[in-house]
Design brief:
single chain; alpha/beta; nine-stranded mixed sheet; 24 helices; 14 strands; about 45% helix
């Protein structure tokens, strides 16, 4: 049999033993992503020499094995997800819900069920706040529904022994293939999310007392009970309700509940699944807002700072770092800055671009659509890493939207193999292959995300960025750690990952976008780190020679997390940019 040969404008691995070694590692990673670093070491030794030419690696044999290995990796992820908390509960963020087989224990439950019913995953079914007779009735219904021996959906009305109020329970079978028949029980018991008071108050301009009235009405409490709990007369509470209806522009309590529940849904929009990776609570909750873009896709963003302040467009890097350290977010408000953070295509709940769409142009249009919706012009953009290309393209396509750019640890278009060689190994592994082996990249990125979910985001971050002492020191600060872990939930959680969007970002960053840099028409200041594992000082200085119009300054003791370490300097530069006269 004659081996097919690719055309002369692509490269293959000439040594069959080297190819076989790489293929073996591909399957090892597909079966267990923890072995990704072994693939990295072998790949760098066997395939990296091909980077010296501008010819991409397109080896048909490796590509065929990649397709098979991806199938195994998909199965690995499916097994991991099935082993965790049933994902169906992640889609029920505000109603108390649990999964049961009708036995003595609760198979799984969501957070509202823990609060409203006092139950826990693996805990006793008998802990449910119902009379024993009602619990036995519920058990029997669950067993019949789970075994498909009853109607597909059964509704029960049971009285809570805690509140004395009736609770409606909807029992339906769990369709996913489980080891035993299970049923999902969703109740009418709602839980007011932690921190939601601030969201309601900001959204409608309510007083603290009025927010408490809204909370009671939303949770279904009679006005008499709300008045008693607050130590107020019934007539006082009725007056406060009328004030709330006027401020929320609703005409009845039922309409008020619908509006508030809609706001709650937005505030609780899952960015892919359950958050994980470290402590929460240092950052104020920021609801994700959304619109439909000109092409009909859902676009989302968050905001913080001064809602009437000078506009700052913050770009979240391919890791989806949407949040700032808590002191930085407070400082933005104190400085009179309104920070707008659009979530890019494929991240969180922002819908992906259509297949085949130009990534750079599509993302640019999404940024413009959100700013236009907010009626914002003349923003200062803060891009991280290769997000610089989005800021430049937006400033060229829509000069009314961007008055200047202050980049933090930005990447300039790479020109040579030696510039890839200077990167730390993990950054080189992904970005060099985005340029030289683009067909291999999707598997590598998906495996990297699987590894991160296996290790946890914090451990993965330390493994990938351990080559920069500055980044490790920055990440050790609690406020930075929380911002990175929580902000990146739009990129990855325990049950979901944006690996396809991340892949598109990497492929786009390694194409030649030097023309965008040369055509810059707005002031561009780049603050760069001297310990950046992706854009070392020597590389930035080499590339800067091609762009004398850029103002580039190195900050000592900083790396890729420069913004998180030196945000006061970045915000100083942003404020100075607002003072720059525009011709």
């Amino acid at each position: 049999m004659t081996e097919s040969r690719p055309s002369t404008n692509v490269a293959i691995l000439a040594d069959r033993d080297h190819r076989a070694e790489i293929v073996e590692r591909l399957y090892d990673v597909a079966m267990d992503p923890i072995r990704l670093e072994e693939l990295l070491e072998v790949w760098e030794d066997r395939a990296a020499p091909l980077r010296d030419s501008a010819i991409p690696l397109e080896d048909p044999e490796i590509e065929a094995h990649l397709q098979r290995a991806t199938v195994f990796l998909d199965r690995y992820e499916a097994v991991q997800e099935a082993a965790g908390k049933p994902s169906v509960l992640a889609d029920i963020p505000r109603s108390a819900a649990f999964i049961s087989d009708g036995g003595a224990t609760i198979h799984a439950c969501n957070r509202p069920a823990e609060v409203a019913f006092g139950i826990s995953e693996g805990g006793a079914f008998a802990a449910l706040p119902f009379d024993e007779e009602d619990r036995e009735l519920l058990k029997g219904v669950i067993r019949r529904v789970a075994a498909r021996k009853a109607e597909k959906v059964v509704t029960l009305r049971i009285r809570s022994t805690v509140t004395g109020s009736p609770v409606i329970l909807r029992v339906s079978p769990v369709e996913a293939g489980a080891a035993r028949p299970l049923a999902l029980v969703v109740s009418t018991e709602l839980v007011w999310p932690e921190g939601f008071e601030t969201t309601v108050q900001e959204a409608f301009g309510l007083t603290t007392a009025e927010v408490e009235i809204v909370r009671g009405v939303t949770l279904g409490l009679p006005l008499r009970d709300i008045a008693e709990a607050r130590g107020r007369s019934l007539e006082t509470v009725r007056t406060q309700v009328r004030s709330v209806l006027a401020k929320t522009e609703t005409h009845s309590q039922s309409e008020l509940v619908r509006v508030v529940l809609g706001l709650m849904d937005v505030a609780l929009i899952p960015t892919g699944g359950e958050s994980f990776g470290g402590p929460r609570g240092m950052l104020e909750q920021r609801p994700f807002r959304e619109i439909r873009g000109p092409d009909g896709r859902r676009l989302t963003w968050i905001e913080f700072g001064d809602p009437r302040g000078r506009p700052v467009l913050y770009m979240h890097l391919d890791f989806g770092l949407t949040r700032w350290p808590a002191p930085a977010e407070r400082a933005a408000a104190a400085r009179g800055l309104r920070v707008i953070v659009p979530v890019r295509q494929g991240y969180g709940r922002t819908e992906p671009l259509p297949k085949g769409a130009d990534h750079l142009e599509g993302v640019t249009r999404d940024y413009a659509a959100i700013l236009d919706h907010l009626q914002v012009t003349g923003a200062v953009a803060i891009p991280l890493g290769a997000d610089l290309r989005f800021a430049l393209n937006l400033s060229l396509k829509r000069p009314d939207l961007v008055r200047g750019i202050v980049g933090a640890a930005c990447q300039l278009p790479i020109r040579s193999a030696s510039q890839y060689e200077r990167m730390d190994k993990w950054q080189r592994f992904i970005l060099a292959n985005a340029r030289h082996a683009p067909k291999v990249l999707p598997f590598l990125v998906q495996a990297g995300f699987s590894l991160a979910r296996r290790l946890g985001k914090e451990a993965f971050f330390r493994q990938v960025n351990g080559g920069s002492q500055a980044d490790m020191e920055t990440f050790s600060h609690p406020d930075v750690r929380v911002a990175v872990l929580e902000g990146s939930d739009v990129c990855m959680t325990r049950t979901w990952s944006a690996h396809a969007a991340f892949t598109a970002e990497c492929l786009g960053s390694e194409r030649d976008w030097s023309a965008l840099v040369r055509m810059a028409r707005v002031p561009v200041l780049l603050l760069q780190g001297d310990q950046d594992p992706q854009s070392p000082v020597q590389t930035i200085r080499e590339l800067a020679a091609e762009y004398p119009h850029l103002d580039i300054r190195f900050l000592p003791g900083t790396g890729q997390l420069l913004f998180f370490a030196e945000w006061p300097q970045v915000l100083d530069a942003v404020e100075a940019m607002f003072c720059t006269r525009q011709d």
